[in-house]
Amino acid sequence: MYLLFTGAPGSKWSSVVKNIYWSNDIDHTDYTDQRTYYHDADTPGEKQLMHIGAYWDPGMEFGINEWNKPFSGKGKRIIKSHTFAHNLDKLKKKNCPIVMVYRNDYECFEWWKLCGAFKISYPNYQYFKNLNSMWKHIQEENKDIMCFVKNNHKRITQAYDNLDLCNILDIEYPNPLETHYYIKKDIKVYVYK
C-alpha cells in the first residue's frame, strides 16, 4: 500500500514525513545517504535531518509512476511529490490515503529560501527554475491543495500531530517517539482517505 504525500516547497511537509517515517509499518528501503538533506533553519548551528527517502518530482531519479523502484522491503511506501498537488482528483482514484500539508504562500516561500533554496542537495529543485517561478509554483500548489480539500471535505480528516496522523493512516507510532505538533510548526495537515 502507498501513502501519498504532497505540499508546496517550504510547507514543512518533509518534517511531517520525517516524524512518521520510522514507524515499523513503513518501508524504509528508499533511504540512502544520497536521499537526505540536513539544515539548521530550526536549530541554528546544529543541522537536523529534514529530507529523507525518495521524492518523485520532475528532474528526480524516478519517473512519476515508478513508485516501487527505490523500495525492496515490506510495509507501506511513502510516495512524495510536490507536483501531486496538481493531480489530486486523479490520484484519489488509486484508493490510497493522500496526505496534504498546507502553509500560507509567503511562509512557504521564506522558509524554503531559509532552508537553502536552490542549494538544497536533495531533492533537486531545478524544475522550479528561479525564485519568481518558485513563488508561482508555491501559490498554484497551495491553491490546488485547498480546492481539493474544499471539494472533498466529507472524506478529509485534519491531523493535529504525528500521533494523530499515525492513527488516521493506521500505522504504528514511530520509534523513537516524539510528538510533532503541527500548530506549533504553523502548518495544517489534511488526509484524504
Assign a percent range to the helix content: 25-40%
- The end-to-end span amounts to 13 Å
Mean pLDDT, all residues: 95
Order of helices and strands: EHEEEHEHHEHE
CATH top-level class: Alpha Beta
| Oligomeric state | single chain
Helix tally equals 5
Instruction: Return Rg in Å.
Output: 15 Å
Question: Helix/strand-derived class?
Answer: alpha/beta
Percentage of residues in DSSP E strands: 15-25%
User: In order across it, which strands form the biggest sheet?
Assistant: 4-1-5-7-6
CATH architecture: 3-Layer(aba) Sandwich
- Contiguous runs where pLDDT drops below 50 for at least 5 residues: none
Shape: globular
Number of domains: 1
Q: Using the coordinates shown, work out and report the CATH topology.
A: Rossmann fold
How many strand elements? 7
What kind of sheet is the major sheet? 5 strands, mixed
Can you summarize this structure?
The protein has 193 residues and is α/β, with parallel strands linked by helices.
